């Protein structure tokens, strides 16, 4: 149990540390892309494909699901948000983002 002036100081310190942690977390949530621009959408698509019952994606053949591209395009921090291409994996303009290549390295 915390008592006296030392206890008050500790409570204030804990409150300050908690506030700093919350502010830092909110900053990361607001500025970090939903998925890493490198390959997180492919990891997610791997899990989604298994969940849908489609099996393990085939590297070089399987395209990510259009829902994955929609999330990628609609994220406020995504670099793809301003690209004037519809979120359909059949569109070649999505380049490597449309490929479900994480069968070789699952999540």
Gist?
Helix content is 47%, strand content 0%.
Q: Descriptors for this entry?
A:
107 residues; mainly alpha; 3 helices; 47% helix; elongated
Provide a descriptive summary of the structure in words.
Helix content is 47%, strand content 0%. By secondary structure, the chain is mainly α. It starts with a helix and ends in a 33-residue tail after the last helix. 18% of the residues are buried. The mean pLDDT is 84.
Topology summary:
Layout: H1 4-31, H2 40-52, H3 66-74
From the alpha-carbon coordinates, what is the Rg to the nearest angstrom?
21 Å
In terms of structural class, how would the helical and strand content be classed? Answer: mainly alpha
Return the average pLDDT rounded to an integer: 84
Query: Which geometry do the CA atoms define?
Result: elongated
Indicate the low-confidence ranges by residue numbers: none
Fraction in beta strands? under 5%
What series of H and E elements makes up the topology?
HHH
